[in-house]
Design goal:
With 429 residues, the protein is an alpha/beta fold. The protein is 44% helix and 16% strand.
Length: 429
Amino acid sequence: MSRGRAVLLVANTAAPYSRGLRVARSLAAAGWEVEIAAVSGADVPDEERDGDIVTRRYHPSGPFKRWSGLPPTPKPPTKLLKDLVRRADRGLKAWLWPLHVRGWWRTLRRELPPADLYHAFGILTVPIAVELGAKARRAGRQGIVVYDVIDAILDSNNYANVPPPLLDQYRNKEAGWVRKVDAVVTVNEALADHCETIWPFRERPSVLLNGQERWDPPATRPNLIREAAGLPKERAIVLYLGRLGRERGLEHAAEAVLRLADAALVMLGFPVTKGWDEKLAKQQADPRYAGRYIALPPVHPDEVRIWAASADVSVVAVPANSLNQRLSTPNKFWESLAAGTPVVLGRDLEVMRAMVEADRLGAIADPEDPEDLARALREILEQPRADYDSMRERCLTVSRDRYAWEVVVEPYLALVDRLTTADEGARAA
């Protein structure tokens, strides 16, 4: 029997969104009818399925459509009109923040059927989740809203140049939305501490780590990366997982690899910064990086671990120049551990650093110093074979026994049970 209808709100194309997919699968296994409501995109279908889970991508509509990621409306014919529109855009973006998702919100209001549970991934989804939850309750559904604080976005580089008075307005908006949700979850204990500090009127958020499903690697270690990249078997593979762009430490990691005797930086992901495709192509064509700097296309989240297991070491060396980065624990970190691949980690990524040092899962380096990154890479790659194998086994064991998704999702499922049961009791009373 169905527990009810759950909608997971994702303010991107979810093509796919790995955290959202894990939550969706866990809710479906617990008896929920699950829809992932995402944003339409040029290269993705409007609807697709993962077992019983449906992902629907809604097209932005209405007057705010022009600010979405869709093709822009025709440009004004004169420079004067262009300048006027540009100034109006800046004013609207400040006043109606977050402006670029409002066209998507409008379509959700019109087309998304009501639900009993709304799981809102990130700050761009919580306002519409609150609104849809209230509408669902008027329609006779439970309309419970859970805000998933996937990052401290207002304390990130994305908002570093926002004038303080305007940023304070954004913080006040978020606090107002939080007052209206039924529960808050987040990705680690440090972010839970942060949320508890800035929203003292809420109970402490539940923690839902980005742990990966339990996975046992093949008896023979896979060799997918070398085969796909055409690399010789003796060349060490330094893996970067995730989005490619600025402020991800890729330039320094590329230089660090050149300081090793025989290693290649292999990037498994997709560009997100404008112009990064061209930058990748130019760098790959540079003779200095021949066979040492390789970009491969992203793979489905279900396939990441076996590809990561093909690497000798993974690098997570973003510069920690914001609170959001210091407290981050991104999927790439958990995916590397789940694959049994040791990690070279930026020294100021404090949450991940504590985990790596506690269980000796890799090495720590200054992410902006190629020489120090090279030193950390050698520390892993050039240790005695037995010690290297033990490090890989520790990564697997920690991921499987302590941080497996099947373990870390239990408090979240208990929270959902509590919220839905409490709502049913209130209705009965």
